[in-house]
Write a structure and sequence with these properties.
heterodimer, A: 197 residues, mainly alpha, rod-shaped, B: alpha+beta, ten-stranded antiparallel β-sheet, nine-stranded antiparallel β-sheet, 7 helices
Amino acid sequence: MRHLDERISDLVDGRLGHDARDRALAHITTCEPCRARVDYERYAKTVMRGLSDVTPPARLLAGLLTIGDPGSPQRPGTDSVADAPVAGLRTRELRPANRRDTTHPDLSHPRSRSRLASRRRTVRVVAAGAASAGALVMVLASLGAQPGSSPPPAAPVSIVPPVDEFTIEHARTSAAIPFAESASLLIPAGGPVVDER
Amino acid sequence: MSGSRPRTARPTRHPSRTAPTFVGPVVIGALIALLVVAPAASADPAPNVLTADDPEAVALLQKASIAPSSVSYSGTQYVSAWSAMPSASSARSAVVELRHEAGGATEVRARDERPVAVLPGRADTTWLADGADPDDLLADAYALRLGSPGQVAGRTADVVEARRADGSLAARLWLDRETALTLRRETFATSGALLTATAFVEVSITPDPLCCGLRAVADHRDVPSDRLDAAQVETLRAEGWACPGELPGGFVLYEARRLDDDALHLSYSDGVMTVSVFQQAGRLDPDGLDGFSEVDAGEGVTVYANPGPPARFTWSAKDHVVTVLADAPLQVIRDLVSEIPPADRPEREPVADDFLVRLGRGVERAVAWMNPFD
């Protein structure tokens, strides 16, 4: 007995043709592992649909699509790639199952499926490469952190020393020196400063 | 801060010419008697370089150092101080009433009914100069000699002179022969000019402690600062505060306080002169200074100065504003400027530790790791 393998995703997404779908359903009635995988993918799809849509940056999406299929034209009926939801890059439910054109080939065709698998691998490689590069950058940045580096200090506070207060403090501490009380004794007097010239 | 003030004979600094407001008939008479009886201040440098202390002079100073803890007294004292800046001839003089209780604080009242000040004694400080009493500081910094005995306020006094290594006179002290209480003192700049002069014109020394009133005042005074111990000072050093334990010229750190406004107050003394160094985090705003002017502190370094007395100096150091008050020769300020140099311009802005800079350093480090020849 041959397991469904890649056709599980197509079954869950409703992308199989009528006959193929019947054969797949018949298979999972007797194959416990494939039934379990179908149940799991349905559960995952339900969870993913519960998440809010996130629109990816247009440059990122365009770049990934260009890398995945450099020669393919832009999807007809789509003015901008930014319009595509992020999950799955293109909405599979919108693809007509039996439609034949160069942009949306019939997935039941072995050559088209091969191209789709190739594109998926390319995207995965690109994503893995980007993640690896990001991790490397972060590691290098952490290596480059200065030991004990801290955020740059705030602008220094502008200070006008309280000289009168300091003069009193000077007198207080000078009094601790028994032979040096002169300044201390002048502070309470507050006598005027006289210019002797 | 450059140049030297010509040595001035004592009569030109007669107190009556500087503060006539405070001089009453009684005080004038006492001062005349004082000046006639006591030898005039002479700061002539000794011809020979002195190094060793006279043991008898050291013993007298040791006795005088602890006299305030065992002697109560009250009296009238004349106080005069001159600016440490040679270019300034400003002076301040006053006649004050003193009242001291043995082992306690000293109550000071000006003759013109200004508010009373209570000055704490050494018992109120956290003494940081380990193993060195005030008389030790004096003995360490100067060569001590006995002078000719004299009379102060009708009491016989022994005279101790403190001379610098070059033989110039730094201080002269008149110590009561009976109690060792300091009755008169004079300090001199290296040029021989007077820095400070105080003398009792009348004094009453009582063997019994004075009335408890003074202690009550001392106990209830407002102490606006926190004293720091040696470990806390060490912590401040680690945090980047300039806290030298000693300054050139024998000035030793004997007390450190943290004031209410987060200013750090370091007190230095050589036993007879004092220097206070205040530091505040930030940069100096020269426009806010009143009575200060720019002066050359040597080697092209500019600081802001007010002649006082006491002379006051302030400048921006690396991260702090430094303010210095000194009843000491100007050389001490120059040494301090060398110890805590001004930063006229902000230090070079630190290179922004942004992501790209860090990334570049990381690449360099990784390459270094992979380089077998490194």
